Amino acid sequence: MRTSLIFTVILFSLLIGCDSGANITVAPLSNASKLNQTAPGEAPGSVALLAGATFASVMSENLGQKADSNPVRGSWHISFTNDSVTWVRGGSVETGTYRRNDDGSWMAQFPEQDVTFNVHGAGVIWDSSTYLRTTRSAFDSRESLIAYLDGTRYDSVEPLDLGKTATGELAVGNWSVQFNDSEVTWLVQDTVSAGTYDYINDAEFALDVITPQVNAVVLANGNLLINSQIYEQAVVSQFSSQETLVNFLSGNSYRSTELKPITGISDGVVALGYWFVDFTDNTVTWSHRGISQAGTVEFLDADRFTVVFSDDSHTVNVDNDDISFAGTRYRRVVGE
User: Fold this and answer.
1) Residue-range domain boundaries for the chain
2) Which of 56, 74, 30 is nearest to 235 (CA)?
3) Most buried in the list 38, 126, 155, 231, measured by CB within 10 Å?
4) Do domains 38-133 and 142-234 have the same CATH topology?
């Protein structure tokens, strides 16, 4: 018999964050182990700290047009040698020198301007913009790029807008990009777009999925930087079909990781408790906000599935013993 822990709180407390969204995480990266992540150089503050390093702007910028006149967006780049720095901004390429200032900051000197920047563990703050360190040789051809990405899926690090549910609520979760041979599928908000991808250089590739074309960058830690969002590689290994999905879920109960409102407001207070998701064979029961919804489960991919109810449906992300959907994270109940 399940017992819900119930508290009463003033309505104001609910409005300032009792019903917060899920903090969605993914499993450790596997492609990261393929990269040489050792930072070049010697002690912090020496020029050798930057020699050989390349960095990509987090903000997506206009990179001009392809030969077919379609626009391209992606990162600006900074690269360092022992005695020079090159700044590539769209069609503009500037080369100059750089040095460390007495106050610990750095100065890049170009023929037309000087730029003060600061170095941190993951990148540089340059001209008020953040640039992150990229890999130095994830792949060297179209064939090795496909070998590197084939069969992988990357999810956004931050929970993002997935559009609205059938009941008008804002859904929050991971955007994702999945690679299968030379093809790619990109989920942005509630829209899934399919296309191809192609090699640009040893840390960058083009996603020909939407207009404008978006160039993606492989960061030094194995993450992908795509259109100003960072994506982490997900471990794709939970289930492979509807049958294995049902076997994975059946008999399990999941409880929200946070207290949630379970009744309506009465006299300025609201009751809080845990929400639950229970699976039996091919069916699901979602107990939330004092109501219970029954539906079915449908296989989507190796660690995601869909819960389908009479009036709406939700994509569910699986992360070991946790599931997340509709802005809430649930953990599998053991021994209760």
Assistant:
1) 7-25+238-332, 38-133, 142-234
2) 30
3) 155
4) yes
For 38-133, CATH gives 2.40.128
Q: If residue 146 lies in a helix (H) or strand (E), which one and from where to where? A: helix 142-149
Tell me which H or E stretch contains 336: none
CATH top class, domain 7-25+238-332: mainly beta
Q: pLDDT, tens digit, for every residue of 91-146? A: 899 999 999 999 989 999 999 999 999 998 789 999 889 999 998 788 999 999 99
Q: Which region, left, alpha or beta, applies to residue 227 given φ > 0 means left and ψ of -120 to 50 means alpha? A: left
Give every residue of the chain whose pLDDT is below 70, as ranges. 1-48, 67-69, 165-166, 235-238, 264-268, 335-336
- The answer to whether the CB of 236 falls within 8 A of the CB of 153 is yes
Query: What is the per-residue pLDDT across 43-75, written as a single tens digit (0 to 9) for each?
Result: 345 566 899 999 999 999 988 877 666 789 999
Going by the DSSP 8-state scheme, the letter that residue 169 receives in this structure is P
Three-class DSSP labels, 11-38:
HHHHHHHHCCCCCCCCCCCCHHHHCCCC
Q: How many residues does the chain have?
A: 336
Which residues 6+ apart lie within 8 Å of 95 measured at CB?
84, 85, 86, 87, 110
CB 146 within 8 A of CB 182: yes
CATH of 142-234, one of 2.40.128, 1.20.1050, 3.30.460, 2.60.40: 2.40.128
In b/e form, how buried is each residue of 192-204, taking b as 16+ CB within 10 angstroms? eeeeebebebbbb
Please answer whether residues 332 and 252 qualify as being in contact, where contact means their C-beta atoms are separated by less than 8 angstroms: yes
> Under 8 Å CB-to-CB from 138, ≥6 apart: which residues?
31, 34, 35, 145, 148, 202, 203, 218
Pair of tokens at residue 33: 């182990």
